[in-house]
Design goal:
The protein has helices at 3-8, 51-60, 102-105, 123-135, 152-162, 186-190; strands at 43-47, 66-71, 81-86, 96-101, 113-119, 172-176, 179-183, 195-197, 202-203. With 208 residues, the chain is an alpha+beta fold. This is Permuted papain-like amidase YaeF/Yiix C92 family enzyme.
């Protein structure tokens, strides 16, 4: 098994478009619904649609395979966005930290369900966390370096550290021939005591 594939079986990058064979099917129109309580800096966990997402969840024993940080609309009529570290989900896009619209992030092609979490923090801390994460756009998605690698959960965890909040997340020891070390899996982040669920686990419902 290649190092990249072994890594994707373990961490919540979720291996979406990067693991598909052939061209991607055209996206159907979809409008994601977000809780009225949502704020920039909230954590948006999702359960991916690919078979590899099931493998991630079986290793992690949690509900989700990926997480991103909410970014407020750039204008009053603009869309909510999500900054996240992911394998490529678009043709020609590198494996990196990217900024996507909420509709893209939660499209039924790549998400089955989701849940929104809040970090109890000041508006200043929240903005600092978001600004740091946005500043990482283009930084490579990296699972192979357990100490310094950047993947979806560590992007969010580090962002909040730069916002002055040390999330008490639980790292999991992974021991495989091609991948070993302590990794932050989605459930290890979701169970941090500083996080509060704003919604139940919600299904992603395709447009009629």
């Amino acid at each position: 098994m290649c190092r990249r594939c072994a890594a994707l079986l373990l961490i919540a990058g979720a291996g979406l478009a990067a693991c598909r064979l052939g061209g991607a099917a055209p996206l159907q129109p979809f409008l994601a619904q977000l809780s009225a309580q949502a704020q920039a800096g909230d954590l948006l966990f999702r359960h991916g649609t690919e078979a590899i997402s099931q493998l991630v969840r079986s290793v992690d024993a949690g509900d989700f395979s990926h997480v991103g940080l909410l970014v407020a609309p750039a204008s009053p009529s603009g869309p909510w966005r999500v900054v996240h570290a992911t394998p490529s989900e678009k043709p020609g896009q590198p494996d990196a930290v990217v900024l996507d619209t909420l509709d893209f992030y939660l499209h039924p092609q790549r998400a089955r369900s989701y849940q929104l979490y809040r970090v109890a923090a000041s508006a200043t801390a929240r903005q600092q966390a978001v600004d740091w994460a946005l500043g990482q756009q283009g930084r490579a998605f990296d699972l192979l370096d357990a100490e310094r690698g950047l993947y979806c959960t560590t992007l969010v965890w580090q962002a909040w550290r730069h916002g002055g909040v040390a999330l008490e997340a639980t790292f999991t020891e992974v021991m495989l021939p091609l991948l070993s070390g302590h990794y932050l899996l989605p459930d290890g982040l979701r169970r941090a005591p500083q996080l509060q669920a704003l919604t139940p686990v919600l299904p992603v419902v395709p447009a009629p």
